[in-house]
Amino acid sequence: MGRGREPLVVCDACGRTVPRDKAVEYFKSSVFDIDQKDIVVDLTRRKVFYCISCAKHRKIFEKKKKMLSKNARE
Ligand SMILES: [Zn+2]
Question: Does pTM top 0.90 for this prediction?
């Protein structure tokens, strides 16, 4: 298998496998297991990756920019 190992990640949106350096890392809050008897709300942030086109489509770049400018202001 060729030179160097490029780590591959799976796009959370389309399921495509993309090289990690071409993927966009994003932290997504998830709510799990809202069940009838046990209500467990887990707001842990899950690290996901998106391929460039999904990131664009989902405006991940804008969100990241927003987050960055918000942090810069504080
Ligand atoms: Zn994708």
Answer: no
